Amino acid sequence: MERRQDILVRFGARVRELRLSKGYSQESFAAKCGLDRTYIGGIERGERNLALRNIENIAKALDMSLSELMRGL
After folding, report:
1. What 3-state DSSP class applies to 42?
2. Which residue has the higher pLDDT, 23 or 2?
């Protein structure tokens, strides 16, 4: 059985993909989310275990629902 990547790594890759598709730098995206740039970097590298409120902030910054953000994870 193939082992799936850790959820934090998959979520981080999803955030990075969506951020880049919207044309945001990490710095501008962090500002839109109300989070620190280094925190966003940690999320994208799968190093941060996020609070649900921060996940909601990320979804809002990407103009999508939580379910859309989580799609495919």
Report:
1. helix
2. 23
